[in-house]
Amino acid sequence: MVGLKEELLKSIWHAFTALDLDRSGKVSKSQLKASGGRPAGGVLSHNLCTVLNVPHDPVALEEHFRDDDEGPVSNQGYMPYLNKFILEKVQGNFDKVEFNRMCWTLCAKKNLSKSPLLISDEDAFKVWVIFNFLSEDKYPLIIVPEEIEYLLKKITEAMGAGWQQEQFDHYKVALNTSREGLSAWELIELIGSGQFSKGMDRQTVSMAISEVFNELILDVLKQGYMLKKGHKRKNWMERWFVLKPNIISYYVSEDLKEKKGDIILDGNCCVEALPDKDGKKCLFLIKCLDKTFEISASDKKKKQEWIQAIQSTVSLLRAGSAPPHKEARQKRKELRQKLQAEQEELERQMRELQAANENKQKELETVRKQLEAAAARAAEEEKKRLQTQLELQDRFSLELEREKMVRQKMEEQVAQKSSELEQYLQRVRELEEMYKQLQEALEDEKQARQDEETVRKLQARLLEEETAKRAELEKWHLQQQQTIQMTEAEKQELENQRMMKEQALQVAMEQLKQLELERKEALEQYEEVKKKLETAAKNTKSWKDKVAHHEGLIRLIEPGSKNPHLITNWGPAAFTEAELEERQRSWKGKKATST
């Protein structure tokens, strides 16, 4: 309903702005309300209620436009009434063409150009309605160059002519330099002037405008003559078919005066081609929920075009999308808004850059002035420095001359003193040489005495060491003889012990072999006894089973072991514990005897 309200407001805006103004520049109250003396063309409010099928409320109208001290009613005062009492009650069950024609009647006479046009008043009306559809949603209403190009292209294509892009580019450049777009009356004058339809007659231009009007305003997606098969008589009749976004209407002829029926389209409908039959060609079928329609096109091309158009319409209904021309208009509008937003952002950035550039220019100018002032101060200081340098050079020149004279005198004195010093140094060197020779002689004598003393001390120390070593060697010799005697006795004793241990070991080995043989014999005896016990156990078990089977459960008394058995790593021992202790005592006695 928001889109419908915007479309209605555009046409009403044209009618409202065309009303007569009073001396204060505002619309007279008598032209807005339903009073007795309404002007030619009808009162605006009354006519709107009539064509929009809205109940008219004279009391609410009179209350809203009550006289007050502010005088006649203004645009701002009429719009609240229009929204509250008329537009909010619109249900969509009205004739859009009749509504637009009423608004056109109120505004055309005052605004339409008096110069002769190549289009009729009816074509001008259609162009005016198309303008309201394509214009921007801001007032005063204008159509931007992009939409003008779109409309002129559609009209040119409908006429079957070629589009002159270069010609429109020149026109667009001239238009952009003066304004943002055209008003409705300027658009009618542009199309009526024939500037973009040269070489075309009035009838061709009129048919092209009507075709574009049917597509954009009446939502006619396709129209044309085809044959339809009747549901009752089954006869074929020629009908004029008009395809809209949710309906296919068929009429007796293309003047649309006598309607024969409608085919309601929804997402469940489908269309499919049929083979030729009953002498009819180019057949296709439209299936709806309640009915099925057989249609015959004039040729295969028309048949394919109608099938594709109906399939596209059903697909849009399933997707819940708007008609192609409305969706395309919305996309163009969104693209323009996006470009406008980008342009505004670019302009904002340019303004920021320009402001930043101006600030930088000011800063550079300030820096330049500071540099100029600094350069002037530096030049002045350089001038003072050069003057001071010249004065210092003159002073240094005089002092340098005096220094040269003083240095010359000093050099003469130095030369004389140098000669005397050289003679003195020569005498000192001779004395130093004599002193060195005396020092060397004294050092030689002192070294000779030290060497003699060292040799004497060394001889005395050697004699003492030789005496000590001789005494130590004699002591070691005595100790060695004693050690040899003791070692011989211990060796004899150890040899006797070793012989005794070897004999004891041989005896133990023989006893171990004897024990091993006895153990093997015991194991063999144990295996034989074990086998006998297993045989006896099996026989006893079978006997017990037989007795238990025949006489019931019987508990047998069996003999137990007299002595506890010994268990070894190889199994049950072959000897009792008493026998093993006796053998152990015998072995210990033999061992004690051998030792």
From TrEMBL:
GO molecular function: DNA binding
SUPFAM superfamilies xref list: PH domain-like
PROSITE patterns: PH_DOMAIN (PS50003)
SMART domains in the cross-refs: PH
The keyword DNA-binding is assigned to this record: yes
Keywords: Cell membrane, Cell projection, Coiled coil, Cytoplasm, DNA-binding, Membrane, Nucleus, Phosphoprotein
Domain PH: 219-315
Highest rank taxon of the organism: Eukaryota
Coiled coil start-end: 325-546
Subcellular location, principal: membrane
Location in the cell: Cell membrane; Cell projection, Lamellipodium; Cytoplasm; Nucleus
Gene3D superfamilies: Pleckstrin-homology domain (PH domain)/Phosphotyrosine-binding domain (PTB)
Gene Ontology cellular component terms for the protein in this record: cytoplasm; lamellipodium; nucleus; plasma membrane
Described function: Phosphatidylinositol 3,4,5-trisphosphate-dependent guanine nucleotide exchange factor (GEF) which, independently of RAS, transduces signals from tyrosine kinase receptors to RAC. It also mediates signaling of membrane ruffling. Regulates the actin cytoskeleton as an effector or adapter protein in response to agonist stimulated phosphatidylinositol (3,4)-bisphosphate production and cell protrusion.
Subunit structure: The SWAP complex consists of NPM1, NCL, PARP1 and SWAP70.
Protein name as it appears in the record: Switch-associated protein 70
Species, as recorded: Melospiza melodia
